[in-house]
Amino acid sequence: MSDTFTVLRDCLVTEFDVPADRVEPGATLASLELDSLALVELSLLVEERIGATVSDIRPESTLGDLAAHADAVRAAAPVPVPGPAASTTLASSAVS
């Protein structure tokens, strides 16, 4: 089970009161009885806690699909490159 799926499971159990035994990779969001507002809230939680924007969450999506999509989005995100200020700070710290 991926870390992303674990975060999704925890969100569903704690924020949406979904019974933990119903949260499995093959479960659809519809089968967990999440309405359209809950899907929007879940997409915001995924962005906040996982760092992946998943604006196209559909009721027929499975949790496994959602976790895989979030992982793919994160993997495709560009890696931040430290700017000149960060390099200066690191250089200053190294000299001290």
Describe this structure in words.
- The protein contains four helices and no strands.
- It is an all-alpha fold and 96 residues long.
- Helix 1 (3-16) crosses helix 2.
- The longest helix is centred in the middle third of the chain and has 15 residues, at 36-50.
- The N and C termini lie far apart (44 Å).
List keywords for this structure.
single chain; 96 residues; mainly alpha; 4 helices; 0% strand; globular; disordered C terminus
Short description:
By secondary structure, the chain is an all-alpha fold. The chain has helices at 3-16, 36-50, 63-76, 84-95.
How does the SSE layout of this entry go?
Blueprint: H1 3-16, H2 36-50, H3 63-76, H4 84-95
Number of strands: 0
What is the N-to-C order of secondary-structure elements (H for helix, E for strand)? HHHH
Kindly state the mean pLDDT as a whole number?
81
Largest sheet: none
Unreliable stretches (pLDDT < 50, length at least 5) are 86-96
Radius of gyration: 18 Å
Helix proportion range: 55-70%
Taken from the alpha-carbon principal axes, the silhouette is globular
* Spatial separation of the terminal alpha carbons: 44 Å
How much of the polypeptide forms β-strand, as a percent range?
under 5%
Structural class designation:
mainly alpha
How many H/I helices? 4
